[in-house]
Amino acid sequence: AKHLLGIEHLHPTEIVTLLDLADTYVDLNRRTIKHSNALAGMTQINMFFENSTRTQASFELAGKRLGADVMNMSVAQSSVKKGETLMDTAMTLNAMHPDLLVVRHGSSGAVNLLADKVNCAVLNAGDGKHEHPTQALLDALTIRRAKGRLHRLTVAICGDIAHSRVARSNLILLGKMENRVRLIGPPTLMPAGVAEFGCEVYDDMRAGLEGADVVMMLRLQKERMDGAFIPSEREYYHRYGLDAEKLLFAKEDAIVMHPGPMNRGVEIDGTLADDINRSVIQEQVEMGVAVRMAAMDLLARNLKAARGAKAAGDT
Ligand code: CP
Fold first, then answer.
1. Catalysed reaction per UniProt (predicted)?
2. Which ipTM did the prediction report?
3. What pTM, to 2 d.p., does this model score?
4. 260 assigned ligand-binding residue
5. Is residue 302 within 6 Å of ligand 1 at its C-beta?
């Protein structure tokens, strides 16, 4: 493929190939992520129109560890603030001939639109409520390393499903890999049509967690709610916040995940989030660098092959 825009477009074998490559970037002692020169001589531009800590930092680190020239465009200081459109901004950067463009945008579909216009490989770092493919891939790698497999697991995704691109990318990926996916949350935060993805839907958290191998918690995405009814944070925590008592309903060895940023005492108990016997939240962050290295490495290989083929055709 030329771009990584969503999990929707990936075949299960492509997912496995990417995770296997990501695994090779993780040192066995887990203290560091290996370096390589896969992107030597290439330019990577990170363009984040929405806030980010994990995704932006790990894409930057991943590019540097692969030997790319990495530039972070500061949207707050850019001409976007003078009214320049996303497309004009993208075409301006495209004229500087980047090889890889990493884009996060608040509108669903914006990254796909941009990918049609530019001459480089585009990686979706999260677009509105649509997709966050590298998050689902790093979650998959974390699950595979913790559970020893990525199939026939029961995964409970809990919280604000309706506004979450993380939930959407994860349920598509986990479904493709033949897992059982349960979605747990208040009906007002459950999107219409989730049944078409083959998920089971629960309002009662304890019933939804029964026998789960993996419990994935989500943040309330208030910035995307447009006035949707939500309970008070206190009531929400009482009904849908993960704590040690509710976790008893999942399997004894169930792992606890959260993509971050996390709101302690709203969707998850802080002590549980920090419990290294159950929580793999820090491993998720660590795997984010390896997965983003693998994604950019594979796209760079495709880019080099396409350029090689074009050069051969031109001669
Ligand atoms: N999980 C995630 O996308 O985090 P950031 O918003 O900090 O990048």
1. carbamoyl phosphate + L-aspartate = N-carbamoyl-L-aspartate + phosphate + H(+)
2. 0.98
3. 0.96
4. yes
5. no
